[in-house]
Amino acid sequence: MDHFLYRDGILHAEDVPLPEIARQVGTPFYVYSSATLERHFKLFQEALGWTDHLICFAIKSNSNLAVLKLLGDLGAGMDVVSGGEYRRARAAGVPGDRVVFSGVGKTREEIAYVLEQGIRQFNVESEPELLAISQIAAKLGVSAPIALRVNPDVDAKTHEKIATGKSENKFGIPIARARAVYAQAADLPGIEVIGVDVHIGSQLTDLEPFAQAFAKVRDLTLQLREDGHDIRRLDLGGGLGIPYERSNSAPPLPIEYGKVIEESLGDLGCEIEIEPGRLISGNAGMLVTSVIYLKKGEGRDFLIVDAAMNDLVRPSMYGAYHDIVPVIEAEPGTVAQPYDIVGPVCETGDTFAKARNMVPLAADDLVAFRSAGAYGAVMSSEYNSRPLIPEVLVRGGEFALIRARPSFEEMLARDTIPEWL
Ligand SMILES: *Cc1c(COP(=O)(O)O)cnc(C)c1O
Questions:
Q1: What is the value of pTM for the model shown?
Q2: Cα–Cα distance between 44 and 40 in angstroms, integer?
Q3: Mind listing the pLDDT tens digit for each residue in 378-406?
Q4: Which of 249, 280, 311 is the last residue of a domain?
Q5: Are residues 301 and 238 in the same domain?
Q6: What share of residues in the chain are helix, strand, coil (percent, to 5)?
Q7: Is 237 close to ligand 1, i.e. is its CB under 6 Å away?
Q8: Which cofactor does it need (predicted)?
Q9: For the chain, what is the domain count?
Q10: By residue range, what is the domain housing residue 223?
């Protein structure tokens, strides 16, 4: 459930009519609902209420500082995959002991920086990385808390570009090698083994792959304890999917996911950590855009909108579906017609939807893409020299610009023409 509803025929974010935001900030823009972010975070808290836990928001899904502050103030930890994300977490007021560092290619600079600034745990993805962390921690005279990210070789049954738990993916240490690498880790200076980590993919709409992965984590944990390791924390990653297509999908709820965790791992007495991104931020955001032209084509009409693939890349990158709705509701009984909804970028891939049934629309009408709060603004670029679009946060009847649109002067000022030209 989110807080984007029609009132008197006008789509609102909580108590704010979207046309009001459009008037003030211009289109296109992202808008996030505080109440929805909070609600989703609390659903996970309830789902893990049976145990000691930390919910680490996956910053890569939405890294705006205001969003991070909101979640951090509710008690969230953060899952970061770069030094930049680590700095965002800290700038939003989240202490280092609530920040987990994941990712396959942590550099030595990043490792040293977070060790100096404070980190809850490294999720280690390879043996060379383990050695690097050991060397750097020993040199700094500190101890690095680590979990090994194991690759359980299960099929997450999701889009191939967001599946991470099969043996052919680049992520994690093959589970069959895990015992050997844990043994090595225990002997290394500057390393404190504390847990096991797994993350099998994103946008999972079935709990079965989670259950399979967790069963393997369970076996491994028991084995590692027999080997003498003090495994006291399990990081189970993120990945729970959301209903992008509201009419025909109902992915599992956080409470059901929490039950699977409890049934698989509840008796081990470990602290449970999870790293949800999409389920917290996805349906908490919309992309609002306006129609530039209605172009009559042969056999199809094109709605050319002012948002493009550089603002929301998921449709062209993953063939992803987003519900697209008019901001002003049509009269009941209005007959829908098919449109191809495209952006202005000079790429055929800049297509959001083909033959999408929409009520009749015209130039200047506002339309909103639902479920755009995760992997939306964070994946945007300035391709075609289109400025990054603003982000807005709503709380009740108030809203604030939380990232401004850069001016063309600011964009141009980033380039330098060498004096020898
Ligand atoms: C992407 C990612 C997540 C978040 O995935 P969601 O599908 O957004 O919940 C969590 N952990 C790791 C390691 C990731 O790479």
A1: 0.97
A2: 7
A3: 999 999 999 999 999 999 999 999 999 99
A4: 280
A5: no
A6: 35, 25, 40
A7: yes
A8: pyridoxal 5'-phosphate
A9: 2
A10: 34-280
